[in-house]
Amino acid sequence: MADIIKLLPDHVANQIAAGEVVQRPASVVKELMENAIDAGASTIKLVVKDGGKTLIQVIDDGVGMSVTDARLSFERHATSKIQKAEDLFQLNTKGFRGEALASIAAIAHVEMQTRTAEDEVATHIKIEGSKIISQEVTVAPKGTSMMVKNLFFNIPARRNFLKSNNVELRHIMDEFHRVALAHSSINFHFYNNGSELFNLPTSNSRQRIVNIFGAKTNEKLVPVNEDTQVVQISGYISKPEYAKKSRGEQFFFVNNRFIKSPYLHHAILGAFDGLIKKENHPGYFLYLTVDPGSIDINIHPTKTEIKFDDEHTLYAILRSTVKHSLGQFNVIPSLDFEQDQNLETPYNYKDKTAELPRINVDSSFNPFKESSGSGNAPRPNYHKQNTKSWDSLYVGMESNLGKNSGFSSVSFESDTITGSIFENKKELIDTGTTTFQLRRKYVVTTIKSGMVVIDQSRAHQRVLYEKFLKNITIKEAVSQQLLFPLSLTFSKSDCAIIEEIQDSLTTVGFVFDNISEEEVTVTGVPLSVPESEVGIILDQLISDYQQDFVVDGFSQTDILAKTLAKSLSVKTGEILDSDSQLALVNDLFACKESGVSPFNKPIYVTITEDDIDKKFI
Ligand code: ADP
Ligand code: MG
């Protein structure tokens, strides 16, 4: 047989490597910024257009490159950072693989201008899809400017795979945060579509965190410091009461390189054990310094995962150091979250002045229009027993209002019978059904053939979910105006998300007066949302978006309806009075899909008389 093995041409090899190194515009941002840092820059400018799809430019004032180096830098395995194999074990730079520029140049239009301090003139090189288009002499300041245009221009499948500009911008911001947090002594500028998103002056690490995540962050931080033979740890953790539902701000840096480590993350969770609720995530910014010889950075092309020689020791040290800081800064005594209301209200509602109680009137309520009231008062129907607060008075009123307007069984009776997946729905509703609550978790009711056990929380999620979806579709949501506008502080990227989904939020009843870079002013909320939960709900929404629900093909409205339903539903552990139980049962079986929760979990089980009889044999 003839020889069939051939070496891949360089541009093909580069495209293949690009597949690993460059997943999206944010990957380019990371590589270019890291190169600028390795070049010893003291100021780095990042310019982005259209989520990085049209343009990514990084300008630095670092050492620059000679004419020869400028040309060589685009070759694969061209690097100035290692000369011999042993260097790999003493890395103090970000790059070493020498493939970033070659990969980027294979899949984009790249222009580089660079000049060293010794040279009088700069080099200007243009490359498109690995082909050098031009190389000229030009005038430019010392340092390097790398312009990457039309990413994936020659790989349409990859280009089409990119998400919306906003989503890509968010990924870029994440990378930018990581690099900027690891290098507080460097001055960073970030421009997006012509406007300045960040201007981070040279500072210490605490100021850098605050400059990125907002002034309110300062009060949340507890310092962490430990110096051992194995590792030196510095940085900050956020106080347990500021733990958030969204994963948000969790950063590990090892030798000034951002890394992901589920294992070390677990060590932090261990330190916070018992201090925060299970569903909340602690914030941390931790900088570890270890001997470069004791880690292997090579295991991942994008270099975000590393291997430590002695992970177990590191784990133990980290955990006890964080625990120690929590104790030392006296955050532990106020930590009984069963009683401490502050933990429920991370936005300092406690400091607000008292507000007059108010009565909400559903101005769009029309008694002659079927189910017009139903969409807007989901929660009040299931009022809990023993609520003694002022609120409950009004809740009760709303509840009656809701019932009169047909939010109970009546309005649904006719549509429930058709196309039902639950054959006994009719008998369930029209016999004088009795219900009871089992272990504050299930609502049990009888049907002719036996009984149904309903998960109260999932059932309510389903009811609310369908209501919100309906509201969004027919745009009939009613908003309650807040007496005082509510100002909430978020990080810039969180604000960007709120801005992105603002339209959908408005369709369910949120009214925003102003969304600035770090602050959101809310003047109206959906009728069923208590003011104290607005911040928590928005947090949850942001977190759901960050986890890229969108990627799985869910629409914005769907995520919104799901999140609201999850946040506002009756929870396991809540006592429901008998009226509420009955209303819940009726509303559930009035739903289009009463069998599964919005998150695809079963809502109820039926136990037939036969099943029970069998137990007695
Ligand atoms: P690596 O960073 O792994 O060495 P790259 O492909 O990212 O590989 O860069 C190749 C080489 O080009 C670097 O080693 C460096 O010498 C040079 N280089 C890249 N970017 C810059 C820059 N902004 N300033 C100076 N030199 C640079
Ligand atoms: Mg590099």
TrEMBL record:
Top-rank taxon of the source lineage equals: Bacteria
Q: What does this protein do?
A: This protein is involved in the repair of mismatches in DNA. It is required for dam-dependent methyl-directed DNA mismatch repair. May act as a 'molecular matchmaker', a protein that promotes the formation of a stable complex between two or more DNA-binding proteins in an ATP-dependent manner without itself being part of a final effector complex.
- CDD domains from the UniProt entry: HATPase_MutL-MLH-PMS-like, MutL_Trans
- GO molecular function terms here? ATP binding; ATP hydrolysis activity; ATP-dependent DNA damage sensor activity; mismatched DNA binding
Gene designation per UniProt: mutL
Pfam families the record matches: DNA_mis_repair, HATPase_c_3, MutL_C
The family note in this entry says: Belongs to the DNA mismatch repair MutL/HexB family.
Query: Which SUPFAM superfamilies does the annotation name?
Result: ATPase domain of HSP90 chaperone/DNA topoisomerase II/histidine kinase, DNA mismatch repair protein MutL, Ribosomal protein S5 domain 2-like
Q: Which UniProt keywords apply?
A: DNA damage, DNA repair
Residues forming the DNA mismatch repair protein S5 domain are 209-327
GO cellular component terms listed in the entry, alphabetical order: mismatch repair complex
Task: List the protein's name.
Answer: DNA mismatch repair protein MutL
Q: Name one GO biological process term.
A: mismatch repair
Instruction: State the organism of origin.
Output: Arenibacter palladensis
**MutL C-terminal dimerisation domain: residues covered:** 434-576
Matches recorded under InterPro entries: DNA_mismatch_repair_CS, DNA_mismatch_repair_MutL, DNA_mismatch_S5_2-like, HATPase_C_sf, MutL/Mlh/PMS, MutL/Mlh/Pms-like, MutL_C, MutL_C_dimsub
Q: Which NCBIfam families does UniProt cross-reference here? A: mutl
